[in-house]
Design goal:
globular, four-stranded antiparallel beta sheet, single chain, alpha+beta, Alpha-Beta Plaits
């Protein structure tokens, strides 16, 4: 589905991804995200808008990815998640850090006045 604004222009799509990091692993997780995962996905063309760790809950890690439209999101997701480096190297590591079943991933459409577009 392609989302459009009130004028009919195609709107950017964001993914708000919240993960639960296993106890005592946040520092290592942030290093892995910043040194391995984010560089890998950006090399495939994905844009990372922000990343955060919880200030009050040491298990919370949140990041935001952005895409020009749904077609780009589909294409870039395939480029990342079907790549051998992801499937054989990065994905197995992710499971050692995260409680994957507790992940919360929301697809968002920016409002017309949002600073992020």
């Amino acid at each position: 589905m392609v989302e459009t604004d009130l004028k009919g222009s195609t709107m950017a799509i964001f993914e708000l991804r919240q993960y639960q990091v296993k106890p005592g692993m946040m520092n290592e997780w942030v290093v892995m995200m910043e040194d391995e995962i984010i560089p890998f996905i950006t090399s495939k063309g994905m844009k990372v808008s922000a990343s955060f760790r919880g200030a009050e809950d040491a298990s919370v890690y949140v990041w935001i990815r952005s895409f020009e439209n749904e077609e780009e999101r589909t294409r870039l997701s395939a480029a990342v998640y079907e790549d051998d480096h992801w499937t054989s190297v990065l994905s197995p590591k992710v499971g050692t850090f995260l409680n994957r079943e507790a992940s919360n991933i929301q697809t968002l459409i920016a409002t017309p006045g949002s600073p992020l577009q």
